[in-house]
Known about the structure:
Blueprint: E1 4-13, E2 20-26, E3 31-35, E4 42-43, E5 54-59, E6 62-67, E7 73-75, E8 78-80, E9 82-84, E10 89-93, E11 99-108, H1 113-131
Parallel strand pairs: 3-4
Antiparallel strand pairs: 1-2, 1-11, 3-5, 5-6, 6-9, 7-8, 7-10, 10-11
Amino acid sequence: MPALNNVITLSLLHPIDKTPVQSWSFEEEPVVRIGRSVDNDVVLYSAVVSRHHVELRQNEDGWEIHNIGTNGTYLAGQRIDSKPVQDGLVIRLARSGPNIQINVTRQTKGMSSIHALIAKQQAAKEETAQTS
């Protein structure tokens, strides 16, 4: 059985139309850090984003969000300290800060992210066809 990775993709969403304007994917990292400081994996230049704002930590069950910033991390308008990540989740950094969409894809180790995305889309089409 081939080894599987939990690939996490973070997308910065446009503030008005909520479409992705920039994305970052991580395949091997056990921790992904987001913040204003240049030593983060994802650097966001916004006055309301803390220097070290959020950590996404991979564990045996998947990924978890951990707020480490002063201005808070929000999910559906509610401030969170930590929360398991579900595919498609959107968090807001600070009350008025940027929105980040989080997507998680399980893929065979060594498979490119684009191939994983195609495989995920095909699986969704097959699932839709079976329920129709």
